[in-house]
Write a structure and sequence with these properties.
The chain contains no helices and 6 strands. 0% of the residues lie in helices and 47% in strands.
Length: 77
């Protein structure tokens, strides 16, 4: 049986927030909503950001709709 091809969102999961222009910061998932389709992430700078799963691309994008940030879930080591 095959498992998921990428990490599933869960509280405590490590993330990378990627900003428009290429900058990024590490973060951690602090909230999982709507069956994993909406996430709240605490970034290194102490700011909480919210992301939603895009139906078009299957990637997590800013919930504000600005398109400036996207979220990458990192695999546990």
């Amino acid at each position: 049986m095959l498992g998921p091809s990428r990490p599933l969102p869960k509280i405590g999961a490590r993330t990378r927030v990627i900003y428009f222009g290429g900058n990024s910061e590490l973060g951690v998932v602090v909230g999982v909503y709507e069956a994993g389709r909406r996430l709240r992430v605490l970034g290194e700078a102490g700011e909480e950001l919210e992301f939603v799963l895009s139906q078009a691309t299957a990637k997590f994008i800013s919930a504000e709709g600005s398109g400036r940030e996207r979220l990458e879930l990192l695999k546990d080591d």
